[in-house]
Hints:
By secondary structure, this protein is an alpha/beta fold. The protein has 18 helices and 22 strands. The longest helix has 26 residues, at 116-141.
Amino acid sequence: MxxxxxxxxxxxxILLVEDTPSLARLYEQYLDKEDVVLQAVGTGKDALASLxxxxxxxxxxxxxxxxxxxxxxxxxxxxxxxxxxxxxITAHGSINVAVEAMRAGAYDFLVKPFNAERLLxxxxxxxxxxxxxxxxxxxxxxxxxxxxxxxxxxxxxxxxYRTIDAAATSRATVFITGESGTGKEVAAEAIHxxxxxxKGPFVAINCxxxxxxxxxxxxxxxxxxxxxxxxxxxxxxxSRASGGTLFLDEICEMDLALQTKLLRFIQTxxxxxxGGSKQEKVDVRFVCATNRDPLAEVEAGRFRExxxxxxxxxxxxxxxxxxxxxxxxxxARHFLTEYAAEEGRAFKRYTTGVxxxxxxxxxxxxxxxxxxxxxxxxxxxxxxxxxxxMLPPPIDKLRPRTIAPAATTEPxxxxxxxxxxxxxxxxxxxxxxxxxxxxxxxxxxxACDGNxxxxxxxxxxxxxTIYRKxxxxxxxxxxx
Length: 480
């Protein structure tokens, strides 16, 4: 069977695998005005042979072929890691086979008969998804999952690692922001260890943990007799950090009067101990951090504007754990192994349901909270697998459970019961079925870091089903 000929070699390539000539010609007509190169073949053998050359962006794959099962072609694509999106074509009565194909890695499926608009929308979405996947794969191909104390290979963290790489070689002040527990001190240490000052001291001081009347002495030091209890001269954090890095954590907690002295110190590089009269020259690189919005603190009059602009030279924002996708599981597995070894336990893994809970929970305390939860599990339980019964509060309220089919996922096919993460229902309340379905789909999307095609595959439905349902929920229409 001959395919459509196009001279433009830079157009997107699509492979159509369809053994019925009349249908192949119809699909070719549907796509004739698209900016694509379409190659049509009628057998599985020819389809596999065409994959030996430049792989197509999209394969339109009929599952019923004269020489082999279309699923075998899909398996070959997955086994050989061919960078393409497979859209399977099936008859109305074989949708369960198409669902199996989705679980095997197909991007979407089309049910015969379908019109031109349905084909065009599906192909355009598949091309767009392939393009985005290629970008992600390129970035992740050089991704780092362990970086100076950080664990995680998400795109958000790759951006953080690159900024640290660039900032480390400079003397410029770095201002780190992020919620509590996101690893701001880890970032500060990474900057120090990557810098030319790595052999010098790294001195950290928490501006929110030291009483206001002692903070000046903690930073600048004091001389004997400067105040009650000052029985000897004492070096401050700034002097101890000379030649290295001074990390001022929770900088927005600092008293306004001390902020003035800190600004002068940063501008001149000299300090004066409490009670002393001698100016001392020190050589430090400043890194500071806060879990507040520093500009909001400036606007509220709690943080000096001139100090903010002096410190806010290279900003680094650490994303919360809930925005880091599969990093949650990577971190959780790391600490399970580490804590099990420390506590002499046999834990090696989590059940699928528990991993779903870990991904679905918002982690307001971020990595610190995740560490505490895992430590609790390891210390208080025995076994080689973490089960749902071992989960401590507050994540014990998120339980893996079997959810009956809320509606047919595609015409003619009802979804099988599946294990998903959901809040435990009140025993006296009955939740409307469409809300249960919506919650499950939204939790799946969140667990897949917003990747709807991946969430659809995990749920055993097509991406188009999720898009239709989301539209119906947003517009208040009936669920289709």
